[in-house]
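Problem statement: downstream parser choked on a complex file, so we are re-checking the raw output for the magnesium ion run. The parser issue turned out to be on our end (a line-ending mismatch), but while we're here, posting the original submission so the record is complete.
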Amino acid sequence: MAYVIATTNMKGGVGKTTLCVNLAASLAKVGKRVLVVDLDTQISATLSLMSPQDFVKCRKDRRTLRQLISQRVDPSSPQLHETAGVIRPYICEQKGLSLLPGDLDLYDDYMVSSFLHEQANKDEDNKDFQTAWANFERTLIKGILKPIQNDYDFIILDCAPGYNLLTRSSFVASDFYLLPAKPEPLSIAGIQLLQRRIERLRQSYEDTEPMNIALLGIVFTMSGNLFSSRYYNQVMKRVQQDYSEQQIFKTQIPNDIQVSRAVDSFKPVVLANPGATGAKAFTKLTGEFLKKLELLTGTKEQKSRMSLAQMD
Ligand SMILES: Nc1ncnc2c1ncn2[C@@H]1O[C@H](COP(=O)(O)OP(=O)(O)OP(=O)(O)O)[C@@H](O)[C@H]1O
Ligand SMILES: [Mg+2]
């Protein structure tokens, strides 16, 4: 069964998507079966892995995440596809790499709200709107991933910045989260804000469905020539005071124009230009990721295995 891993930070533009697609491609290159799920209406992960023309085709065929969400909230929506039918395998012509494309609109707020009101009125399990909402949030992403979880080694969820319904639902479905951050104060504040939110979410589900999600590590990204500056050292000192060595990836991703340029070829830099400095850093990070996971899963195996399997 796949490990579900969210790349997330409430702060925008810190390298979540770049980390998600490069980690996924690097894992596929070493023989893992990996699915990227784009949960952001900016569709950056989707457009990092396929051309806009291909995306338009997916959208026309209603093979995007939007369709899977619609099928859950809109009784009038045609039940066109199972999760597997929306996934694009062999993405970037890379064996083992698949994409569940995102969409510019993932759900209609009004539709969700009216669906939940209806649920709250007719269903005993959903006593009131708040309970209906919590049940929906708890099961949405889990329900979408459940039928395909045995087909992959890793499912990597690219979360939007902020803290929306899909991000919360992803946390309930995830075994781990990766926290990319720039070595600068506002980005570090984003780490703390997110961790507080996750703890609050964990408490709110304590009685219904204990959450498994644990921090896999903080990844410092886009660290330009800051690396050696005094300012960088001050920021890192603060981080080291708040987090243990195990919580911070040793490998940092440098600022490298080749990383952002790779998007032009609709491939992550580790596939488009593996010799680039940024690509090498992502490859190294992937090795560290696998080691860290091995260490953490020893202690977490019991908990993480129960996630989707126990859902009815
Ligand atoms: N190591 C890097 N070197 C150079 N540019 C980078 C690097 N990592 C990311 N970028 C660029 O920085 C921008 C933001 O990165 P990215 O989209 O991954 O961040 P994000 O956190 O996903 O943003 P958002 O919050 O909008 O989803 C992009 O243009 C990306 O190409
Ligand atoms: Mg992004």
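For whoever reads this later: The pocket of magnesium ion (ligand 2) is lined by residues 16-17, 40, 44, 158 (CB under 6 Å).
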